[in-house]
Amino acid sequence: MVSGDSQVRLHTASGELQPTPPFDLAQSLAFLGRFGPMRDEQAIGSGTLAKALRLDSQTIVFRLHDAGTVEAPRLAWTLYADRPLGPSTRDAALDRLRFFLSLADDLRPFYALAREDPVFRGVVERLYGYHQVKFPTPFENACWAILTQRTSTAVAHRWKRDLIARLGGALTVDGVTYRAFPTPRDVLRAPPDAVFAVVETLRKGEYLLAAAEAFAAADETWLRTGHLDEVYRWLRRIKGLGEWSAAFVLLRGLGRTERLLLGGDDSTFIHELQRVAASVYGSTLTAAEIRAIAQRYGPWQGYWAHYLRAAGHAPGPPPAAC
To answer: What's the pTM value of the predicted model, to 2 decimals?
Structure first.
């Protein structure tokens, strides 16, 4: 279908998705509305979401509308593009959308474990139906990790906005311009000076280019499903991604919830989990207590940590572990 627009003639496609229940889009929208790294990068309404994505060199805007219930969820979707949406492009966009909102996650085993945790059970009751909202791509997550290293959040936001404006894509739908974060190939196609001009430091520019080179050559299917330790080692080989950043990308950029890479008792991961857990469990947990609770959640350790983050609203940057 083709629709009119003040700037360009748009091509559209529409349909319906069925997330794995329970799924509550309102919970996803609430989290996204307070998720600092993606502040003001989408339009959020009552039961609606609109956002731009980049697929290769094309910008696509998706709109979602909640059309079901928590136990029988349905999401009506519409895609907008300035070029025809062939089946492969449409399927890639929908895959990215499902990934971004974790629509396929079956939370019932996680909730069953939570029922055995009398404190955390209350968190699940508050967030019932919330599927993890990830960064749309692991590359965007890696870039955010790099931008925030030894840098204030305000400055990192400015750099991210400039990267989007200079190297990403934009599409206007119904008078609203949506901007998408660049793909690795967008970054590599640009003159290197464009990256260094944004971040103003040689080191961060080098790290961003290294991440772009790595993710441009990566098989994202393998990153999402390959052996966790191998994927973690691959991330650590990217210049600029240390333990904190690699663990952050595993969970928040790839949805790898099956194990938390907590490091030693004095690691950043432990300290930040202690920080967010204190508001839920009522006191600061020891490193041993953090490990013991996480292990009880087995392959849902990452979800346990992320629900702590979502429930605690802890100040500061998003913890690597949650």
So the answer is: 0.92
